[in-house]
Fold each of these.
Amino acid sequence: MVTRVMDAPGEQPLPSEDYLAENGLYCGDARALLTRVRPNSVSVSIWSPPYFVGKSYEKDLSFDDWQKLLETVIALHFPVIKPGGFLVINIADILAFPDPTMPRVQADNVSTKKCPISRGQVLAAKNEHPDLNRYQLAKLLGCSEQTVQRRMEHNNVRGGKYATQTRVKLVGGLIEAWTIAAGFYPYDRRAWVKDPCWENSQWHSLSYRSVDEFEYIYVFWKPGITCVDRSRLTQQEWSEWGSRGVWYFPSVRSHAVHEAEFPVELPKRVIRLLSAPNDLILDCFVGIGTTAVAAIKEGRRYMGFDLTPEYIAEARRRCFKVQLGLLDDARP
Ligand SMILES: C[S@@+](CC[C@H](N)C(=O)[O-])C[C@H]1O[C@@H](n2cnc3c(N)ncnc32)[C@H](O)[C@@H]1O
């Protein structure tokens, strides 16, 4: 017999056996699976989405697709989060976003130029002395003949100045707009200081921009009664991180199985701060199961989704090992 569950007024309820079972990791699109989470059941949903930085699992997304994905996922969270519960999003601003429509304004990088003679100077000298050959122009300018040739033929350009420009996209405003439209209220935000990411060193050395070394943790609240229990953390934990706006812990440096997993410490802190034992914790971009591992270790129920079958397989393996107490966080 099909039991009907009436949890969300005005919404067509699913037969109860169609809701996903708790303590499960599911392979599929978050947008489809979120419609199968029992309404008002999740205390904290914590996730880190694709960042639109060219990882393999997001390579087919346009910027519009990416925005639509996040906007839809956020809207689908509102019915499933408990009144008084939280949606927590870990994300960084998008720094590496090639945008061909941007003006190509980047300056010459004078510190990497071997010879300070510019193309403009060579052309001016050639204009003034049209009869001089390259060797004579070089003598006049006090540089090598090779420099004269390179400047005249444009083959010494080192990328930056003429390459497609990189757009900086501040994502906080987008996330705020989408969460408010869904019915949530901004509640808190923290900065997670990880370690400098030198991978984008060209970005760093061809401009005055900083190296990327922190991300945000945005917290949104669904209106309702929120239990504030100061005994969830020790006095030391409150003063070291519970009440602090900036969190310091390293990111995961080896990406043997996943390109962009976060460390267990991140969901662990969020779970300890914002949920009680046995609460249900959701991660709809669960990757290799880091949030589920943290939930198990903190005595919470969990549910996780990911589009990539290999990640879900690894997530299940990790959770199994942690449940058996075989490994601390069961990283490969
Ligand atoms: C930043 S990673 C999350 C990593 C995870 N926090 C961990 O520690 O393993 C984003 C994940 O979203 C998944 N993903 C991308 N699009 C998705 C979608 N539409 N539905 C579900 N998962 C998706 C990717 O496969 C990837 O594992």
Amino acid sequence: MRKLIPWVGSKTPLLWAIQSLLPVHFRKFVDVFGGSGTVTLNLQLPKNCLQIYNDLDHDLYNLLYCTKNKTLALTRELGFLPDNSRDTFDEVCRFLKMEEYGDRDLEEELALAKVLFDKPQAEEISRLLLQRSVPPDVRRAAAYYKMIRYSFNGQGNNYAVASCDIRQFFHQIWEVSRRLKDVVLENRDFESIIKKNNEPQTVLYCDPPYYKAERCYDVEFPRSDHQRLHDVLIVHEGFFMVSYNYCDFIKELYKECFIYYLERPNSQSRKKGSVYEECIITNYDPRVFARQITMYGDFGRDDRACKLVHIPDHPLKVE
Ligand SMILES: C[S@@+](CC[C@H](N)C(=O)[O-])C[C@H]1O[C@@H](n2cnc3c(N)ncnc32)[C@H](O)[C@@H]1O
């Protein structure tokens, strides 16, 4: 398992199901809400398939960019400050919040872009502003990496009082760098990346912030974005797969799709045996496209069971 950082909502426990439900033939794979990159880094894809990682969080994008393209500089920067004291953690947080090194003009421009334009346009303008004034920044990537690694549960907000020598992760950074060699990295809002890749042979994998858990991330995901995501996906010419928490709102929203139900151990709960209910939604019938799945649609067993719980009247994607 290749891993760069721990991340809330990481798909490590569900990779086996995502892999099984993929269609067999396609030319491009887009990880629309890439997060830690776990899906991009670990899925097995057809030979010569172009892979795109995307996340709107600029710090995540910058970390992946520097891991891929500035590996030596990043590991050198991380090696300079190997202690994980609270002082280091606080300094790293100050740096990221730009309290000390801040660029006030940039912050004002980014805030204005949000007020003056609608979301996809504001995102495009922010991307250009960030590209112009914050070139891929190794210092920032190293600070961000430390903040995640030194924090409790990798959430970046509470200092974890546990010993952590950052140098133990260097081999992972090099391995991830090699894996990212041919992966295109993007830093866009989901709507613009989906529209940009609207082709019949493209698979979009979407792992958005979950319903009623939208505030777990630094980038804003208003509740209305679930509908915005649905509306842009439904007209996608290729294949799509979406991961969500299993709840009535999502079942209703995606009723024109196939819905698979699965459970995973709930790591946030102290109750023994507690499980978290998830679903994987597709616009195609995986029983036709994914050869390993039986006619009934269910696969796996015991704690790795995946059940087909909803079949639409007419599949959106048939070839
Ligand atoms: C559930 S996490 C993805 C986890 C990822 N699959 C993994 O395995 O680590 C959701 C991600 O969506 C990103 N995000 C939130 N709003 C977004 C938007 N409008 N466009 C693109 N990415 C967004 C967040 O930064 C967060 O990393």
Amino acid sequence: MVNIFVCIDFDRDYALPVKNIQHAISYPLKEQPKDILSDPKLSASLKGTLNCFKSLIDYLTDFAIPSTFYFEARSLQMLNSTNPKYASLLKKEIFEHGIHGFDHEDLTGDETGIALDRNEELQIIKKAQVEIESILDTKVYGFRAPYMKHTANTFDILNKLKIQYDSSLYLESEKAIKPHEIYENLLEFPVIKTPKQSVMGGMYTYLWPLFEGKRKAEDVISNYLQLVKNTQEDDSYISINLHSWHFSYNISQERYLSELETEENIQIFRNLINKLQESGEVKLSTPKMWLKERKLI
Ligand SMILES: [Zn+2]
């Protein structure tokens, strides 16, 4: 059996790094005046996430799909203050909660030009951890770096904060993989990228191109089935990675989608999960469940 991890980056609508601003800007708000952009709260929009939230959560709950959410603490805070009922749905047992920065900070400073020293990075991740744990009354086990970019200090900081695993690295593979120790007491659950020369072509296991109309649903499904087919190892996994807003916001078209289009995107995702389940070769899980089964937490 191959473990399938559904992993959802809970972001503001398409987090964009901007020069000289530490927090990310929501892409649809990028033309707003400077005083709005410089405010971490005013420059974040949750519209895309909210437009598909109920349909997505209903599906995951009704079909008992265990899922891992990597939260930007700010977006979770905004959800909790504007839609507390939605936030409380995230407390369900089948959902696991990880950290994805406080304001989707570019930890490396490569894009913003604002490099963080060790203490600044520690304070941001710690603040996010405290906020997520308090809003959802939970314990956080995992971390995914915003933009999948970590610094030389990140793993040591995660260790200090007693985070059990990171999932911010890509690993080229034609089959399901296993986590590995990346730092003392810290496991890495990489995100698969299939090799360019494989039958699957070069595919990151993020559903980004699918929702941007750049990859056909049937190709994505057959690639995931191929990854499963190529796998012999029992305790391996494949993560399916997506963003909380992507069912209802299209970046290349720069528009929020209609209700019908949003439902169609959710249906495509459901199809992918159905086809994997029909193969009889997978079991739905999360990194936390994986760790628990092995008594590592
Ligand atoms: Zn993100």
Amino acid sequence: MNFELDEEHRQIRETVANFAEGEIKPHSAQWDRTEHFPREVIEKIGELGFLGVSFPERFGGGGADSLAQALVVETLSRYDASVGLTCAAHMSLSSGHIANFASDQHRERYLPAMIAGRKLGAWCLTEPGSGSDAAAMRTRAVREGDRYAISGSKMFITNGSVADVYVVMAVTDGAKGKGGISAFIVERGTPGLSNGRKIEKLGLRASDTAEVRFDNVAVPAGNLIGKAGEGYAQTLKILEGGRIGIAGFAIGIARGAFEDAVAYARERKQFGRAIADLQAIQWMLADMATRIEASWMLLYRAASTKDQGKPFGRQAAMAKLYASETAMWTTIKAVQIHGGYGYVTDFPVERYMRDAKLAEIGEGTSEVQRMIIAKSLLKEGYLAG
Ligand SMILES: Cc1cc2nc3c(=O)[nH]c(=O)nc-3n(C[C@H](O)[C@H](O)[C@H](O)COP(=O)(O)OP(=O)(O)OC[C@H]3O[C@@H](n4cnc5c(N)ncnc54)[C@H](O)[C@@H]3O)c2cc1C
């Protein structure tokens, strides 16, 4: 067992960090304030190869492992969680769904442009009336000769109003429950595809979140991903992988909050000495660092289990659960260490705190992760090692 990152992974983290220091960090506060979606930066991230780091080389990817992709998301999120989430949804969800389950023809058609950042992806599962219980979706896809007509509405979709390629889950056979759900590729510009109202958010304000509407959207029958009825099983697999990404996203935010808190504690003087000399502050820093490190170990284990081709659902759920609660806890403590300055927008810690909350909600809430973990350990037994 090796707990250190190897040279290749260290290099990825360093290259992304250098890029983010120069091209993202100086603008993050303003993008958040003005809700500016930095499309140009996402394209650059694609040009540099970061969006495809773990995708097969034959589609223009880097051929690296899952840890590499998590490192990209983590490092971007350390500087700007909105950018991190945008890339995570693009890579793990939409591009990942096409890479894992679409035909070769579709992979060749979409992946090179998505990996290069020329086309942006969105993944449409959640609906106004169905979130945790995703199988209760109401969007329907009806076969009409050599095409499907999709009707319904999807809610809270990351990149929903800016994407070029949509992966959409819809019911094709209402009598079959989960086995009657299918996944489709829908391109921007297809008649009947539109966006609902702009969604204003607590955090991640520079990421795009939209309602996506389908009004009798006709797609060729060939746009079905895999076979009819396989959509729900595909979704569960994609979410398992996506949770490793969200763990990285959460760790990135927590790391930012921790580093800023340490720097502030060293500088801020009260009662004639740096607040870093106070045990109350030291204990918070110690707990932050310990939780971040534990989150890393869980992420590392989930990613390496996945890369060995073994079932990794429980590990991914544990990593996502622990990292997201760590991000929330750590950012709250970072605000506390900054005192009044933590509560105002002059320092980025209040933004970290607002951004962190999504990690406990998206791609399965903390309650859903606990359900997954409990179900797995009661069925298969436990322990690690
Ligand atoms: C910024 C943002 C980006 C998102 N991006 C995407 C995206 O790109 N694509 C997409 O498809 N979706 C996306 N989502 C949706 C997200 O995945 C859902 O919000 C999430 O799965 C929770 O669903 P819900 O909001 O309907 O909450 P609900 O499912 O209604 O849950 C409400 C509460 O009830 C709890 N609960 C529900 N069921 C149970 C249970 N059985 N046991 C215990 N507690 C339970 C939940 O944990 C939660 O606390 C995004 C959401 C946000 C906010």
